[in-house]
Design a protein that fits this description.
3-stranded antiparallel beta sheet, elongated
């Protein structure tokens, strides 16, 4: 039983650490891309005696270096995407170890599940290659970011902006130091915010279906409210740490709560938008053992406490 609980903690910790590391890596990649744009493009724009960017063939040729810049950036991005794939494979292995602590996973099931889950994201593990036009391929291409950079520079040249003002505005927009996001960070944040938690739940779902498991623990961390976030949503607050049967879990698909992704399966989305909680599926025998150890079935935690004012209301 302790090994089973340890495996849950390892998956949760690995998912959180991988998400934090991805955020740091993207921010570093964003800084490197910004420096490259400045060095190869902004530093080479010609201005007139008043500091205005000239609308000339020379400057248009400089603008066209966005393609070269993107080639260099893509080589760096490919390294990051490779890192993401390695993390996802490691998370799959942690899920397999967890399942082996719950029941028994055959080699053939493990291989089928690994191939299916990675292929869903766009990675062919047999060929060790990213599938063209897949989610992973688009994540690596970042065509929207490239177009946005090209458009900003083109507009600045055509409108003959003061170069000093353009450099400042471009820097503020590209790096967005006020919120900590920027062109690249925002792009990744929209696509990978809860990537590892989603992959963990998808892996659990594939194994659950194949192994016919009918019970699960809702797990993950409780986040307190901050100035930037509202903390753990009430739906998750009431379920974290509890054991539920499949019928009860699926019944929640008919409920409504703040943050829910409508028409989604709660077995894959948990609390909804940007949820970082997990399902850990168990056998009926293990569910019975958990109940004997005091874990109640289909129980809800008390409602999330509300903030009070100085009068205690």
């Amino acid at each position: 039983m302790s090994d089973f609980l340890t495996q849950i903690s390892q998956r949760e910790r690995f998912s959180e650490e991988s998400a934090s590391a991805l955020e740091r890596n993207v921010k570093a990649l964003q800084g490197a891309l910004y420096s490259l744009v400045v060095e190869r493009i902004l530093d080479n724009l010609e201005t007139d005696e008043n500091g205005l960017i000239k609308f000339t063939v020379s400057n248009i040729n400089v603008q066209n270096k966005v393609g070269f810049v993107w080639g260099v950036h893509q080589r760096r991005t490919n390294g990051l995407v490779k890192w993401v794939i390695e993390k996802l494979i490691k998370l799959f292995d942690l899920n397999t170890a967890y399942m082996n602590a719950v029941t028994s996973v055959t080699d053939s099931l493990e291989q089928r599940a690994r191939k299916k889950l990675l292929l869903n994201l766009g990675y062919d593990i047999d060929k060790r290659a990213i599938v063209p036009d897949s989610w992973l391929a688009n994540l690596a291409a970042q065509a929207e970011v490239k177009q946005r950079v090209a458009n900003r520079i083109s507009t600045a040249i055509q409108s003959r902006m003061p170069l000093a003002r353009f450099r400042q505005e471009f820097r503020d927009d590209f790096l967005d130091t006020k919120t900590g996001l920027g062109y690249l960070s925002r792009y990744f944040n929209q696509r990978t915010f809860d990537l590892f938690q989603q992959f963990d739940r998808s892996t659990q779902a594939v194994y659950r279906e194949q192994l016919k498991l009918g019970y699960a623990i809702y797990s993950g961390t409780i986040m307190q409210p901050t100035k930037k976030t509202k903390g753990t949503r009430p739906f998750c607050w009431q379920r974290v740490g509890n054991l539920y049967d499949l019928a009860t879990i699926e019944s929640w698909n008919n409920d409504h709560w703040s943050g829910k992704i409508e028409s989604s399966d709660v077995k894959l989305t948990c609390g909804g938008h940007q949820c970082r909680h997990h399902w850990s599926w168990v056998s009926e025998q293990m569910a019975q053992q958990l109940q004997k150890r005091g874990r109640k079935l289909n129980n809800l935690n008390p409602p999330k406490p509300q903030k009070t004012n100085s009068n205690g209301n």
